[in-house]
Records
---
Amino acid sequence: MKILSIIGARPQFVKEAIVQYELNKIEGVQEVLVHTGQHYDENMSGSFFKTLNIKEPDYNLGISGSTHGKMTGEMLIRIEELLLREKPDLVLLYGDTNSTLAGALAAAKLKIDVAHVEAGLRQEPKDMPEELNRVLTDRISKYLFVPSEYGMENLRREGITEGVHFTGDVMYDVFLKMKPRFDHAYYKALGLEEDGYLVMTMHRDFNVDDPDILRSILQGIEQIAREIPIVFPIHPRTKKMVEMFGLENYLEQVMVLQPIDYLKLMGLTSHAKGAITDSGGFQKETYFAGKRALVLMPDTSWIELVDHGINQLVDGQNLYESYKSMGAKEFEHGIYGDGTAASKIVKVLTDR
Ligand code: UD1
C-alpha cells in the first residue's frame, strides 16, 4: 500500500511525526512524504524534522510566501503532477493549512482517496483561511479522523457521517511520546523561574494584519509584562507586521525570541505559569502540560477547553483583566483521548 502524505507548516510536522512512527511499524506500507515548502526557515521547519525524527521529505516543492490563491494554486499544480507520477492508494493530510487544501483538491479530482487527520473542527470567523481550508477538505475526504467530541458533533450537524472515526488527538500522542525529551533546562537558561512567566505565540491574520487590533493586543501584553515576564518566540509573519506598523516599542518589556523547536517550547511551557496564544495546537499543548491559556481568538475549534473553564477566549481589550483572573492549576485531564490516536488512524488505513 502506498500512502502519500502532504505537510507544509509547523503544526503538521508535529502531527506527521507520530503518524509516520506508527506507519513504519506496519509491513507493506510505503509512505511518500511531500513537503510543500510553505514553512521554510530552519526554525519553522528543518529543526522539527531533526528533533522529531521525521524522515527527509521525498519531495520539497519550495512553494511559500505569496498570496493564498497563488500559493494554493501552485501547490495544486505541483501536487497533481506528483500524484500522477507516484500513483498512491491514498493521500494523507493534516489540519487546516493551504497545503492541506491543495492536497485534498488535487487528490479528489484524480479520484484518489483522501484521509484527513484533525477533521471536524470548526470556528469563527468563518472567513479565516484555516476555516475555509478545513471545511472544504472535510467535504471531499473519504476518511475523517476526529480528535474531539465537538468535532464529531460538527460533522453530524453538517450531515457528514460516512468514513468518520473518533480517534482522539495525535498531538497528545506526540506530547506523551516526546515528554522525556523536553528541554526542561531552557527556562533557567533564559533566567526565568518555575511558574514565574508566561509563554506567548501569535500569528493569526485576524490578530496581526490590522494595525489597530495588533496595537490593542500589544498594549495588553505590555501591561501584563510589567507584572510577569512574557517569553514570545515570534512568528515571522508577526515580526513583519510589528515592524511594518512600527509597534516594536510595546514589546520592550517582552522577551522576544526567534521561533523555537518543539522540545524547547514544550519544556518552556511545562514550567510556565500559563500561556497567551492564538495557535490551535499550542492552546492544547498548554493544557497537556497542565497549564492554562488565554486564547487570542473570538472562538476556538478546541472549545471544550473553554467550556471546562480551563482556557479563556480573550482580545486586546480584556487581555489584562483575563490574566488577572487566570485560575489555579487544577482541572480535568484526558479530554483528548489516551495517546493512541495515531495507532487508531493507521489501523483504519491499513485495514481498508
Ligand atoms: C500557517 C497556517 C496556519 C498554521 C500556521 C502555523 C495557512 C492558511 N495557515 O499560517 O493554519 O497555524 O501556519 O505557523 O496555511 N514565513 C517565513 N518563514 C517561514 C514560514 C513563514 O518567513 O518559515 C512567512 C511567510 O513568508 C509569510 C508569513 O510568514 O509571509 C505567513 O506564512 P504562511 O505560511 O502564509 O501562513 P502562517 O501564518 O504561518
Note: The chain is about 45% helix and 15% strand.
---
Amino acid sequence: MLKRFFPALILLVCSCAVAEAAPLKALIITGQDRAHKWAETTPLLKRWLEETGLFSVDVLISPGYGGDFSKFNTEFSKYDVTVMNYGFGGDPWPQKVKKALDDYMKSGGGLVIYHAANNAFPKWKEYNEMIGLGGWGGRNEKDGPYIRWRDGKVVRDMTPGPGGSHGPQHEFVIEVRDAEHPITKGLPPKFMHSADELYNRLRGPAKNLTVLATAYSPKEKSGTGENEPILMTIKYGKGRVFHTAFGHGAKHLKSVAFIVTFQRGTEWAASGKVTQKVPADMPGADKPVLRK
Ligand code: ZN
C-alpha cells in the first residue's frame, strides 16, 4: 500500500518545489571601462546567466565618461546578486550609490567581480574590501599584500610594488585549490582556459578572502613565476562576493572554463549554494573548449 502511494507523493513534492523556485534576480552594472569592450561582454554575461534557467537579468548602464550621474542609482535590494562589469578608469560613483551598494552587501547581498571590475575605484575603501584584490589605478603596497599560493597555502606577501599586471595572452590551466566549496565542488581539479590575459600581482586588503583556484603565471610570458589567484570568494559583512579575474573580451567569455565558473559563482553569490551540474563539455587540463 505504502509502496503504491510513495511515487505519487514524491511527484507532488517535486512539482511544489519547482513551482516555488522563483528565479534569482541578477543586475549587471556596466557602462565605463577604458580598456575593455563592455558593450560586447555584457550581452554574453547576461546570456550565460539566463541559460542556466535560474536567473532573470537586468542591465544598468551608467552615464559615459564625465557624464551626469545625478540620476544614476538602483534599488540593490531588489536583486539577489549584482554583477560588476564597470572597470578600468571608470568615473567614481556618487556617494549615495556607493553607500547603497555597501549597505546591500553588509546586509547579505551578492556581488560578482568580473575581470576589470577589479581595476575600478582604487580610492573607494569599502569597494576594495569587497573585491579583496585589485589592480592598476595606482594600487601598490599601501593597498595590501600580494596573495601568493605557495606550498599548498595562501601567503600574504607585503613586498613593495605595483598592483596589477599581465603579459601577452596565452592559454592557461586553472587549478582548483579548494575542491569543497560549492562553486568548485565536482569540477575537474585542473581545466584549460583559452588564450586570455592572466592577471598577476593583484593586491588589496584581502580580508576574509578564500582562494578557490589559481593559474600559473610564467616568467617567459611577462608573468611572476607564481600561482596567481584567479577565482576567489570574499565575505563582506553578511554578503557574499565571487571574484573571477579572467575573461578580457567577448571571445574569452565563450570558453567553457569561464562560462561554468561564472554561472556557478554567480549562483553561489546570489543564494549561497550551487545547484548546477557540471556540463559534459567541461574541459580538462589538456585543451580549452569554446562554445559558439
Ligand atoms: Zn582585460
Note: DSSP finds five helices and eleven strands in the chain.
